[in-house]
Every structure is written in structure tokens, then in C-alpha cells.
Amino acid sequence: MLRKFSPEKFRSHFPILSKPLRSGKELIFFDNLATTQKPQCVIDKISEFYSTYNSNVHRGMYEFSEMATNGYEQTRTSLASYLCVKDPREIVFVRGTTEAINIVAHGFGRRFLIASDEILIGAVEHHANYLPWQILEREIGIRRRIIPLDENHCIDIGKYEKMFSDRTKLVAIQHINNVVGGVNDIEKLVKIAHKNGAKILIDGASSLASKKINISKLDCDFFACSGHKCFGPMGSGFLFGKYGLLMEMLPYNVGGNMVNTVRFEESIFKMPPDKFEAGTPDVAAVIGFGEAIKFLETVDMPSAQAYLGELTSYLGKKLAQISGITIYGKPAKSGIFSFNLEGIHAHDVATYLGNEGIAVRAGTHCAQPMMQILNVPGTVRISLCPYNTAKEIDIAVAALGACATTFKPKPRLGRN
Ligand code: PLP
What we know:
Blueprint: H1 7-11, E1 28-29, H2 40-53, H3 63-82, E2 91-94, H4 97-112, E3 118-122, H5 131-140, E4 143-147, H6 157-161, E5 168-174, H7 186-195, E6 199-203, H8 215-218, E7 222-226, E8 237-241, H9 243-248, E9 259-262, E10 267-269, H10 283-297, H11 301-320, E11 325-328, E12 336-341, H12 346-355, E13 358-359, E14 361-363, H13 368-374, E15 379-383, H14 390-406
Parallel strand pairs: 1-13, 3-4, 3-5, 5-6, 6-7
Antiparallel strand pairs: 2-8, 7-8, 9-10, 11-12, 12-15, 14-15
Pyridoxal-5'-phosphate binds near residues 96, 98, 128, 174 and 226.
């Protein structure tokens, strides 16, 4: 285990971080919420799959297919164990959080919700946790009620508690806000939802990168996560769902691998998780995700989280010294900052930093309702990861300072 977390040791697992850019500059990767970089062991695992036993799962009677199926199912078992989920059948493999939330919205919504039923969602959710519910509102006539926020852009627990009625069937809420980095107290949110007889879905898109999540203790009904935001490959992710609910829910995608019997008249679906894994999955991504979980098991997560907290405070202090900066929200040690430099478009700031080898994100971050609340067209976002360093922060802040004082915007047409 990387006991008493060593940032240097942790960083050394990520080959891309020591590879110079075409410009010759060193990469400073501050866009970790979009996707994290991958450790060598994950890259090797994917390469091993394609170069030694590439085949489909759950259908071949030959050695390679058995190896692929074993690797795929082993990820389910190790993921369940890492998350303290007792029954691995409660883990459904998906391409990412977006697909996981759509499975719940369509599978749970169409099965259990009727017109005038209410679901509670946060005011600043990612589009992935916004649009599926808007569609159900249009199609079934459910009511979406928006939970007000406190001054840190987190769920206002007092107000949340007062919103339940006997029509409230589901709460869908993010764990870590992807624009300003607020961290919701999901333990409390789950308890309050259950006390009021509602089910709860946690959008934990990026939670595993710096937190250990004990799903059995948390007791949420659904948990959605993207593997690629937690050191796993693109195209990997999972939906946790309590087995009784998964059994009752309708499948979202239908097709091969998820049925027992297909007749002209009717068909019989397999039991979960197969019922939700129609078609050929991204086998290499799932097996690679299993390796990312093994990698995470070697990390002393409380120390990694403490280190990320230190980096967050350091960056917060440094950013605040830049002239003309507006920082939105109060980052809760999650390493996520959104800001603007006075008079400079967020895209221009990101391009300026990009030219210096510093990768950040700019725009609306798939969270346009949040931009409405902040009353800005977009922001620049830095999202840190435990492989980042204070030295990188110094370089990025110096570049931002130079941008704030020397950048001359060109007139632009048609951009907000
Ligand atoms: N939810 C949150 C809070 C996110 O930050 C993201 C991605 O940035 C998503 C959902 C969607 O994740 P994916 O694109 O991996 O499906």
C-alpha cells in the first residue's frame, strides 16, 4: 500500500505526466474532472487483453472467451468488494455515469413513477442528472422539484428536509459538484430520503478518485460512477442498485446477452445485472477498470484525500492573489475551482494556459443551470488530482497572473 501517501510515488505510476508535449513544455494536467490519467498497470492490462485473449464474453466455449469472461466477472467481484457491496450482482457495468443515470431514470421511472409523483434534484446537477428527469417530466408528467442550495452551493439540508411529501418517490443528487467543488453530505441526504420513504440515487461521477466509498454503510439505493474519472479506461463505469429494485426495473437497452428466451409472442429477460447489459460490452474497459480498482486498493485513501485538501487550500490562497479574478463558490477540499479573469473570455484564458502546457477546462461544464445561478456564460475550471503538485500550482498561477495582466482580447463574433 502507498502508506502515508507519497505524491511522487503515486505520480510515478502515470507515464503521460512525464512525457514532454510537442512544444517541449511539460504537461500540467489540471482537467482531472473531465477524465483522470491512467496508471501504467491499467494501460498494460488493456494491451494484454487485446494482444493475448481478445474475445467476446458470456458466449464463447473456447479458452480466450473463458479468460475474457473471467476477467470481466472478476472486475464485478473486486469492485463489489472495494465498495463493500455484499452481492456483486448489484453492480451493473455501464459506459459511465450518464448511462447509469439513464438506466435508473428509464428503468425505475417507467416502472414506478406516475403523473404527479415528485422527484427531488439539486439545482446545480450535471446535465447527465438533469435531462433524463426532464424527459420523464414530459413523458409521464412527474414533477421535478429543485432543492435550494446553501452558500457553498451544496444542498441546503434544512430546506431539503421540508420538501418531502407522500408524492416524493426519488431523490437524485450529485456527490461532488463538478463546477465549484462543493461536497454534499450524502450520508445525511440518504437518511432523510429514507426517513421520508423515498429512494435515492447518488451521482458519484468522480467520487472514487480521492474517496473510499462504503456503499453498504451509505445505504443509498443507486450509485452511479464513471471509471474513467477514477483512473480506469474510457468506456468504463458502474451503476450500483439494490437487487430488489434492479429486479423490478425495466431494462433500458434491449438486445443480445440480456434475454433467456425470445419468442414471436414475448420474451423473458435474464436476471440483473445481465438484464441491464445488452449487447457486446467494452470488455477491455471493464477489465482495465478492474486493474484500476486494484491500483486504488494500494493507495492509502485518507492520506491521499488529506494531500488533495492541502493542495486545494494552497491553490485557493494563490488564486485569490491574482488581480481581477472572481472565484465562484468555496471549494470543500475537493480540488475543484471555477473562476473568471476580469475582461477575458474563459476560452481565451484556457487557450492561453494551453499554450503554456497547462490543461484546464473552460465553458459551461455540462452544467448550464449552474451558469444561470452564477449569472455567467462560462468559467475556467481547474480540477486537481492527488498526482498534482504544489510546483505545478506555482507555474499555473504565474501563467494566470501573466494572462490577467498582459492578455489583450481580440474582438470576437458569435461567442458568449
Ligand atoms: N455527473 C457529474 C457530476 C460529472 O462531473 C460528469 C462528468 O463530468 C457526469 C455526471 C457524466 O459523466 P460521464 O461523461 O462519464 O458519463
